[in-house]
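Hey, weird one. I pasted the Transporter sequence into the form twice and got a warning about non-standard characters only the second time. First submission, copied straight from the form history:
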Amino acid sequence: MRISARNTLKGRIVSIEKGATTAHVRIDIGGAVVTSAITNAAVDDLGLAEGQEAYAVVKASDVMIGVD
């Protein structure tokens, strides 16, 4: 796989929760868990399953910081 995004985090899918149209896919990337909201169709097209290795790809133009 070759993509332009530079923030790719390899991990293992720990859960997939499908809703009416959108699924929440949780990937453990070494103790931290990243959650992605993608379509149910994308889950099916990619053949995603719990326990499978996958990449979380982060592409953002801004990162905001907040404090109390």
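That's the output from the first submission. The warning seems to come from a hidden character in my clipboard, not from the data itself. The longest strand covers residues 7-18.
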